[in-house]
Amino acid sequence: MIKLLGIVIIVIGFILKLDTIAVVIAAGVVTGLVGGLNFGEILDILGEAFVTNRYMTVFFVTLPAIGLLERYGLKERAAELIGKLKAATAGKILSIYMVIRTIAAALSLRIGGHVEFIRPLIYPMAEGAARNKYGDIPEEAVEDIKGMSAAVENYGNFYGQNVFIAAGGVLLIVGTLNELGFQVTEKEVANASIPIAVIAVLLAIIQFRIYDKKIEKIMEGNK
Amino acid sequence: MALEILYILSGIVSLITGIYSFRDDTLETRFGTGLFWVILSITFIFGRILPAKFVGILVLLMGVLTATKQVKIGSFKEVSEEFKIEKSKILGNKLFIPVLSIAIFAFVIGQFTSLGGLVGMGIGAIVATVSGLIITKASANEAIEEGNRLLQQVGPFSILPQLLAALGALFNAAGVGEVIASGISKVVPTGNIVFGVIAYCVGMAVFTMIMGNAFAAFAVITAGIGVPFVYSQGANPAIAGALALTAGYCGTLLTPMAANFNIVPAAILEMKDKNKVIKTQAPIALTLLVIHIILMLVWAF
Description:
Chain A: Keywords: Membrane, Transmembrane, Transmembrane helix. The structure holds two protein chains of two kinds. Chain A is mostly helical.
């Protein structure tokens, strides 16, 4: 049970809103110590994992280009394009992205990403649609649109990917189950992942509709 | 090798932010902030050749800097809204060419070569920077300034995914997974399919929330809970296995531990509330978790 001390530290740290990075490091060090590792071994694991997971942070290389384009009006342009579609709403734009993102994930097409797609294109389009409809929108609505824009990427990515027969998740399921003595094939697992992918798309579209209504209500309240 | 070059380039972006921070007179904590970004750049540029222990010490140092509130957002030039609107009118849809080139290179290279999507993204980023400079006729300095601005806005949270991966490695080494799996299996009544399925799906989601990673949870929870309570009761393994992993993803949507999906995007989109992404996702995640349980019960048995 004492091995769960690290989890307790994380929970308390998040509740007290302590510095996240320091809390995570403290939890790791404590877990290592109560798990019987010495300080040198903990440093080794910390350092090695940090270096092997650098790939999670390589989006840094895209920042100069995206920043430059933003300085020269990328968001404004995306918003203007969407403005030409009179019926567009933030929710509709995000629903379309959800469908495309899920199908792409199912086909293993690597379309998406918060840095590559959401910040430069999808979010400005969604916000542009709302601004086009209502003019100036309050901060609360802007935050909602940002939240949805980040979420749609996760929904499409997570629930679409296992429909692809050679997805990492599918291979993991097959490998783990075979090792435990249950015979399954990649094709069976990929097929079994289809219903949840479809349900996730439907739920996302419902959520985006609800948000559209919420934004409408906020705007009416402001009039 | 190509990936290592990409890490070096990322390190250079961080190094530039470090230098800008050191030089930023308006920033009270400029020394700590600059040090943070320079240390990070060292782990990126020299990560492969540095001893792991030394990197571990550098990581601890970064933690000390953020814990003592030494890392803050500096100042940078912001251009006016009028400038942006005017430029967007002049440049028109050409502005999309560089952005799309990031996406297209990531896609094509990831899809059709053995280099992988990340390397594709890196090449795309270089193409985007060069084509962006040509299209906007901006100076290279402006791109560097803008890279600094965005990285400062994303802030120290950018290292959270890597740190959480390290935390996962430490949890694994300490055997946290086994403790949780045995804890859950003690409270589940044996022989009851409904409780077994609930324990398997909820266990996947909860353990994923703790580890921040459904892949890490899958092997532990499947061996500890899935096999005794679900598979050995006659579940179709392909269906139960597929649903168990995506039940884990419901946990991913709910946890700050999955920082690169939930916390970093909040920083990238400059949200006021860094938990806003999780709050937005919570209703969908919980609904989907219930659907997973029902689906596994009616479809896998």
